[in-house]
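Ticket #4471: structure export looks truncated?
Reporter: QA, pipeline team
Priority: medium

Steps to reproduce: submit the single chain below to the structure queue and open the exported record.
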Amino acid sequence: MAARSLAAFGAVLAACLALTAATNPGFVVRITQAGLDYAHQHGITVLQKELAKLKLSDISGDFPVRHLGKVRYEISSLNLRSFHLPYSRISLVPNVGLHVAISNAFAEVDGNWRVKFHFIRDHGSFNLKVKSVYIKIDLKLGSDASGKPTVSTSACSTRISSVDVHFSGKFGWLYNLFHSAVESRFKKILEGKVCDSVVRSVNSNLQHYLQTLPVTAKIDAKAGIDYSLVAPPMATAQTLDVDLKGEFFSLAHRGAVPFPPPVLAFPPDHDRMVYFGASSYFFNTAGFAYHAAGALVFEITDSMIPKGVEFDLNTSTFAAFIPQLDTMYPNMLMKLRLSAPSAPFLSITPGGISLQPVVDIQAYAILPNTSLAHLFLLSLTGNVSATIDVKSGHIVGNLSVGRMKLSLKHSDVGTFQVRMLQSIMNICASSILLPRVNERLAEGFPLPLPDRIQLSNILVQFHQNFLLLGADVHYTPRERR
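Actual output as written to the record:
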């Protein structure tokens, strides 16, 4: 019986783990080959500078000459004047990571030499040319405990085909005795130091840069966005996909989201360097977070009525539709409190973004002592559509309202015809509430971008359950002081 219970527990645990592993991301970043090529250009520039900084130690040795003894040589004051990487390519290795192949690289070294052969002593300078350098680098991608991406060098190999050294001096026959030994030593030393430099550059430069990707972004005093990775980046034959949590959360209290992310089916279009897939889950957690934070509440007073609107927010105006107000609360200012009884829920289809928010409108009379008297509670529903764009690395939006419907939920002033208030509530919603909401949406929400990245050539598409944003990338290197 105990064994059966243990087996059942194991089955339940396995099912839970399977469900956890199958959780879909709320936000996906897709980097195409064009995006990788662009990043690769900047990475190779950095690596080339790092290789040019290689420090070479003095070398010395004895080279045996048959029947003549040994040539004692010393090489010092080594200076790597340049290291060039003219040809390189980055490629995707499905389910593994990235592969970088560098070919026909070359370098130049100069320094001083000193030689002793029996009674002969000589010294001078030399120039060494390293040609046909081939470097292969495998990069493993992952994520750390905080949800930031990681990168490491899983393999590196260097092959140098040609090393030519030229010694200045009078005894050419003497240099020919040991130049092959010097060339062989240089080749072995450089092959090792190149991969050491690659590993250091990946760890200190590339890894450090990836850590600038924000995994949480504070939006305002109420909410933030969780952009942490839910899995290591996945390489396919054509793209590098990064799955992010993509979830808004309340800063005051972060609770579990009561709905799951949908599956995102990306189209095969790869014209841009990078694509962002923002699911309906991403946007709906925004409504959930702001509702949980108590931020979806808005009050309208008479002073907020736009100029040119021909009514005052007072009981005298509403008495035309609710005559009993003249008796109960004559000529008093009013206040409307708009709130969402539940978090707004939007849907995304190829036709665009739409939602049908429900807004409760509680009307009050402001008494002479400034206390509030409940008048009536209305429910306002409407069809809302949205336009989306990207500006300065932020998703920005604008809402427009279609037909709105008004109904009475409760009245403290007796019965009345709600439809008579439709035009006034339409004005309050479209002329006061909507501009305030759009003002906030114009500020936008930040995309998950690492440091010093700007987007251009923006593409906006709507698909089933997600918004697809495509863009090209421009990176601005940090100025060195």
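Status: closed, not a bug. The export was complete when the record was re-opened. Leaving a note from the reviewer for reference: The mean pLDDT is 89.
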